[in-house]
Design goal:
heterodimer; A: 679 residues; alpha+beta; 22 helices; 28 strands; B: 163 residues; mainly alpha; 3 helices
Chain lengths: 679, 163
């Protein structure tokens, strides 16, 4: 009996030991494995989206934003029958079956375990796939960047790559702030996969919203105008910068050609379209740089606007190199006339009085030769040689805007110095980070306030009696300076007959609210000079800016009727600033250049004393103006143009929608009218 | 004819103690000849039932205060147990239900946020200056010149008046 009991106890003991061993195996040795399996059954990991920060304009209009989308992928290694699978997916996702099958077979043969089938599926497609519940089909949630305004401010905003990482513009410059890091939550679910309880495993970090200083309305107008001007003057590219002269806020920054950031770059696309010409592409400024020369003269010499400057009849020979004023041929004129008529020789005379050291100093004080520090990648610093590398002819060259290269943005920054009373402000593109307003950096004094005001008055003369008459605004006073620089061909070491036509200006004169700089690169012929090509763009953009910002008019409306455009030869900025169209190349030929015929008569007459004081000067009877073709058929437009002897450049078909120049614009000899037709 | 007590007694009969062997008196009787054609009796073949009417109207249950108290105690205990169980398990159940609701609301919140973003995107597309410009051209609308728009000073008046 006792023996039997011992046996029974042993069996029970072994049984208990087996249970204990199994318990230890389950709870201790394989705890993680079984806990993981349990979690896999009971828990699901939920992605908490953290979208990339939205980019707004200064009025809160969204320029770039991200939304979540679903994408479908398959595991080709798990697909039981590729033929059936491709047919099924093609049916649900509206894809080409044969193409999909080929892709899946290729992926399967190459041993890939992941093949993305379609991105951005519709809710209906998502539901259809979810109901199938096939283990080889996966649906992932991903974020997609959208630019709702299309091409608007494309160069400012930039774009993102396929991983939603910024690759240009603000998207790249502020990548760390804009990028959102999605979070994860572990959710306990029931048998029907309904969530019961969730714990945040990783907190999401939403991208910071960025508010730009750009005004989308002004940006649109700037882009539209520069595109029209580039097309009308057959230029290679163009750019516009509009700035608030006091805070440095960039109100518009347009560059042409442009692109749509919603469309990914394709092979064969023109890379120039993605270049931000206003910030990244420096050029020789030409006559607009005379503003810097005269400002330096006011600061460092005893010259004033009425100081006589000897323009030597329009030519000067320095160190064996002759530089001339083409047809201008002015004698002794006040310094303000040098600026108004853009005398090359006059600017050199002024520059010689300033001296090399002072000129170099003021060029740098105005911000040239270094980056402005705007929040955009790939900004060019331009080129200003160090003083020790200046040659004998450097001072005359720099005085009239050669031997230096600048960006449109740098020109705008320099124009702000004149407009705001003499302080250099840093261009600002970011107004707010999240809800935090960005502080304005303290400006640096460059000019004495009275000298800045004097410069403003002299620049008004450019608009009233000089080369910038096409920039004159209705109801507002303004100041500006034209520039037409021949483009240097490094291959042939010659200046070519293609030009950089530019205009920098501000309005109103007494308390400027906006500075606008326009540059057209690679224009051809006289119509491509700054006064003819760039000044009208300034007029429209500055006028729109003043309207948008509700700036009160400072001239009576009656002045509008008296507005008179100067004669064509007065707008011939190149003829005054650089060489004539048929003149010898200054780098090639250092001998005396003959002044073009008729030059002496053109500007020898002194400027009326009341001109600089703001009185409009009417020059002769008004000429013919551009008729209004809008709303007419192509047949009617061509008939009317033929009757008037006008040259039309039609584009498209249907009804005339847009025309350039605008109706009512004074017509000049050789002008061609571009008319855009659309149905 | 047998009555139920008799039947029960009959069935219980084998359980009665057997008489002592010495007291059993066997009478030697000659065994009757078995009728070969007679069927063997089935068990309880001789039992017949009939209904006996019993009048219980005069029977009265005797008052038992202890049983009543016990009954009420049992009812009270059951209620108490129910309350205790309810209070013990209700929070868990409510938490679970609230969890379901919370998770449903979380996912709804995420869905609505996404929907709002999509709507914001559509709004931004519709307010694109290029589109507005095109619409303005189609409807022969022109931009008011500077100073033509007068904003009313009254704080409640957000309406712009065109001259």
């Amino acid at each position: 009996m006792e023996r039997r009991l011992i046996w029974l106890a042993l069996v029970i003991g072994m049984w208990g030991a087996a249970i204990l061993a199994n318990l230890i195996s389950l709870q201790v040795i394989h705890h993680r494995e079984y806990a993981g399996k349990a979690r896999a059954i009971q828990e699901v990991v939920v992605q908490i989206p953290a979208p990339r920060g939205t980019i707004f304009d200064r009025n809160g209009q969204a320029l770039a934003m991200s939304v979540s989308t679903q994408s479908v992928h398959v595991n080709p290694q798990k697909v039981p029958d590729i033929g059936v699978a491709s047919e099924l997916l093609a049916l649900v996702l509206h894809l080409d079956r044969a193409e999909l099958e080929a892709k899946m077979r290729a992926a399967c043969e190459s041993g890939r375990g992941y093949l993305r089938v379609k991105r951005n599926i519709t809710p209906e497609e998502y539901e259809s796939l979810r109901k199938m519940a096939l283990d080889w089909i996966g649906i992932a949630t991903e974020s997609q960047r959208h630019y709702p305004k299309g091409q608007l401010a494309a160069h400012v905003i930039g774009g993102v790559d396929f991983e939603e990482k910024g690759n240009a513009g603000i998207e790249k410059a502020l990548e760390n702030e804009l990028r959102g890091i999605p979070g994860r939550a572990r959710m306990l679910t029931d048998v029907k996969r309904r969530g019961i309880e969730s714990h945040e495993a990783q907190e999401p970090r939403t991208g910071t919203a960025i508010t730009l200083t750009i005004d989308e309305r002004l940006q649109f107008v700037a882009e539209r105008e520069i595109a029209e001007a580039v097309a009308a003057h057959h230029a290679a590219s163009g750019s516009v910068v509009a700035m608030n002269p006091y805070t440095g806020d960039i109100l518009a920054l347009a560059s042409y050609p442009t692109y749509d950031p919603n469309a990914p770059p394709q092979p064969g696309d023109d890379p120039a379209a993605r270049l931000n010409h206003a910030v990244s592409v420096p050029f020789e400024p030409g006559s607009v740089f005379k503003v810097i020369t005269l400002s330096a003269a006011l600061e460092t010499t005893s010259l004033n606007p009425e100081s006589p400057i000897n323009c030597n009849g329009g030519k000067i020979t320095l160190y064996g190199r002759t530089i001339h004023d083409s047809h201008a041929g002015m004698g002794v004129v006040p310094m303000k006339t040098v600026l108004a008529r853009s005398s090359n020789v006059g600017a050199i005379q002024v520059g010689l009085k300033v001296g090399q050291t002072n000129m170099n100093d003021y060029v740098r004080r105005f911000g040239f030769g270094r980056r402005t520090g705007i929040s955009l990648p790939a900004e060019s610093a331009g080129k200003v040689r160090k003083l020790q590398y200046w040659g004998k002819t450097s001072l005359p060259s720099v005085s009239m805007g050669q031997e230096v290269s600048v960006t449109t943005l740098q020109l705008a920054q320099a124009a702000c110095v004149i407009a705001n009373g003499g302080s250099l402000v840093k261009p600002r593109l970011v107004l707010k980070r999240g809800n935090q307003l960005q502080p304005v950096e303290p400006p640096v004094r460059v000019l004495k306030p009275d000298n800045a005001i004097t410069m403003r008055q002299m620049m008004e003369g450019v608009v009233l009696v000089g080369t910038g008459s096409r920039a004159r605004l209705a109801g507002y006073s303004s100041g500006g300076k034209t520039g037409s620089a021949q483009i240097f061909d490094f291959a042939t070491k010659h200046y070519t007959h293609t030009y950089n036509g530019s205009y920098m200006g501000f309005a109103p004169l007494t308390n400027p609210s906006v500075v606008v700089v326009v540059t057209l690169n690679g224009t051809h012929g006289e119509a491509g000079f700054g006064g003819q090509a760039a000044a009208p763009v300034f007029k429209v953009v500055a006028g729109e800016a003043l309207r948008i910002f509700d700036v009160p008019k400072d001239l009576p409306e009656a002045e509008k009727a008296r507005t008179q455009v100067a004669r064509n030869e007065d707008l011939d900025d190149l003829a005054i600033a650089d060489l004539g169209a048929n003149g010898p190349n200054i780098l090639e030929d250092g001998d005396d250049d003959d002044a073009p015929p008729g030059a002496a008569a053109a500007t020898a007459a002194p400027v009326p004393a009341n001109a600089a004081a703001g009185t409009m000067v009417v020059k002769g009877p008004p000429g013919p103006t551009v008729p209004n073709f809008r709303g007419k058929t192509m047949r009617d437009v061509l008939a009317e143009a033929a009757a008037r002897g006008l040259v039309i450049l039609p584009d498209g078909s249907g009804i005339a929608r847009v025309q350039y120049p605008a109706p009512g614009t004074p017509l000049h000899e050789g002008d061609r009218i571009r008319v855009q037709f659309a149905r | 004819m047998a009555t139920m007590p008799a039947f029960l007694r009959k069935n219980e009969a084998p359980a009665a103690p057997a008489p002592a062997p010495e007291t059993v008196t066997r009478t030697a009787r000659p065994r009757a000849a078995r009728d070969p054609f007679r069927l063997r009796a089935l068990p309880h073949d001789d039992i017949f039932f009939h209904c006996k009417r019993i009048d219980n109207s005069r029977l009265v249950r005797e008052a038992d205060p202890q049983a009543r108290g016990a009954c009420w105690s049992a009812i009270g205990a059951a209620c108490l147990l129910l309350v205790l169980l309810t209070s013990a398990f209700a929070p868990t159940a409510m938490t679970t239900l609230a969890g379901y609701k919370l998770e449903a609301l979380h996912s709804e919140e995420r869905r609505l946020l996404e929907e709002r973003r999509v709507l914001d995107l559509q709004e931004a597309e519709l307010l694109s200056p290029a589109r507005l410009d095109q619409l303005a051209h189609e409807n022969n609308l022109v931009t008011p010149s500077s100073g033509q728009v007068i904003h009313l000073d009254k704080p409640e008046g957000e309406v712009a008046m065109v001259k």
